Amino acid sequence: MVSYAIQLLPAETIFARADMRMKFALLLLASSLIFVWNSIVLQATFLALIVGLMVSAGVTAATIRKLVLIVLPALVLITVIQGLWSPFGKTPVFTVPPGVPLFGSLNIFYGEGLLFGLVVCCRVLIPMLAFQLVFMTSQPNDIVLGLVRIGVPYRIAFLFSTTFRFVPLLFQELEGIKEAQRLRGIDIDGIGMLRKLIALGHMLVPLIMISLTKAQLMEIALQAKAFSGSADRTSLHPSREKLSAGEILAIGACFAVFAAALAGRLLFGFGGSVL
């Protein structure tokens, strides 16, 4: 079961108590700054900063490791592909032995490509961990309220919140289906990869049916409560409608860092090389 990726953390930490608008600014920075830099040093520093924020917010090292392991096969594949065919490749790392027919003495793996592959891996990990950090430190209602406060229509914000709530529910239902299979003598986790993929494909049918049933029940509940999606609503914590001075500074810092990085790249080429 992979519920560790969506569990909520205690709200005692500074980051968890921060306003959602500040967290959205961090997500915007994490999703945009990664494409400004090609430097492995800058990308690794940014990744270390995100990991540091996760640790300070109470995310355990085991959880971070599990999150990385989810995408590790894709990261390895990306690194190998970039090492083989990246246009940045200049310094050969591996050369085919001269005695090999047709390909003898051919350079097929480059150091610059390997480094750029690591840059691409950082571009995958940074937004993934940043989104995970925000979702693990925010209540669904706070996410909706934050979206509304930055101008997102309430209907769209409510749809986003509903989707966010459905993710852990689907994981729970999937685990229940797997437990039912174990009671029938089929251990999904203990069989081979090919058989596991086939078994998981068969499990999608009841999972989809359960999801459709729950969605229909939610629709009936919303209709019974005369849900209209009107933006004219009151909030549970009206005092949080105003940002604190620290949050304003943090949001300003996010935009300033992005503007400085973009100007440095366009005007001076800062961060354009892999090293």
TrEMBL record:
The species this protein was found in: Mesorhizobium metallidurans STM 2683
TM ranges: 24-55, 67-88, 108-131, 191-212, 248-268
Topology term for the membrane: Multi-pass membrane protein
Protein name according to UniProt: Putative Cobalt transport protein
Pfam families reported in the protein's UniProt record: CbiQ
Predominant location: membrane
Signal peptide start and end residues: none
Family according to the record: Belongs to the CbiQ family.
Upper classification of the organism: Bacteria, Pseudomonadati, Pseudomonadota, Alphaproteobacteria, Hyphomicrobiales
Localization: Membrane
Source taxon at top rank: Bacteria
Record keywords: Cell membrane, Membrane, Transmembrane, Transmembrane helix
GO cellular component, one term: plasma membrane
